[in-house]
Amino acid sequence: EPEVTQTPSHQVTQMGQEVILRCVPISNHLYFYWYRQILGQKVEFLVSFYNNEISEKSEIFDDQFSVERPDGSNFTLKIRSTKLEDSAMYFCASSQLRTRTDTQYFGPGTRLTVL
Amino acid sequence: QKEVEQNSGPLSVPEGAIASLNCTYSDRGSQSFFWYRQYSGKSPELIMSIYSNGDKEDGRFTAQLNKASQYVSLLIRDSQPSDSATYLCAANAGKSTFGDGTTLTVKP
What we know:
The complex is a heterodimer.
Chain A: E1 5-7, E2 10-13, E3 19-24, E4 31-37, E5 44-50, E6 53-57, E7 65-68, E8 75-79, E9 88-95, E10 105-106, E11 110-114
Parallel strand pairs in A: 2-11
Antiparallel strand pairs in A: 1-3, 3-8, 4-5, 4-9, 5-6, 7-8, 9-10, 9-11
Chain B: E1 4-6, E2 11-14, E3 19-25, E4 32-38, E5 45-50, E6 54-58, E7 61-66, E8 71-76, E9 85-92, E10 96-98, E11 102-107
Parallel strand pairs in B: 2-11
Antiparallel strand pairs in B: 1-3, 3-8, 4-5, 4-9, 6-7, 7-8, 9-10, 9-11
């Protein structure tokens, strides 16, 4: 069964450094998402992406964040200058459609630790 | 008011019992609803999706949706210790909005 994959599984970085989190969505899916979950808190929407453009973003997704689909398979989240409060699990998700009934499939997540 | 609100846990039930998980949502534009199971440190795993009013059954799981009341529930019949996890309710209006989750413990 096709699945969303994410690398790395765990990233440790120093405050102020740039990180890139990578995702490979399910191959025939057209819509891509990033969510984050701070330890002990709920899953929060960051951004959705379709046709090489951001469709929607939350207030969390400020200028420090960017997303890119550099090739036909990868979808990346870049955090330019990490802060301590960026420490969280970051989940990538993809869906075939962006209708209000389509299911989003989640990857296993990348645990980001900012020291 | 939270956009998606779940009944506060933790919830503990004995093995074999029915576990009932509840969720309300505030955005009337939400048209699809999902229940995910999440083990500690892992990603959400889809259990059920529901789009229409009424009940939807899948094995031991039954999801119920009442759009007029903006209410979604998940029943787990014959609960097993392996069902012990945090259950997340999500409402989808393009993006998914998650509740805080309800932690379920099934005691042998």
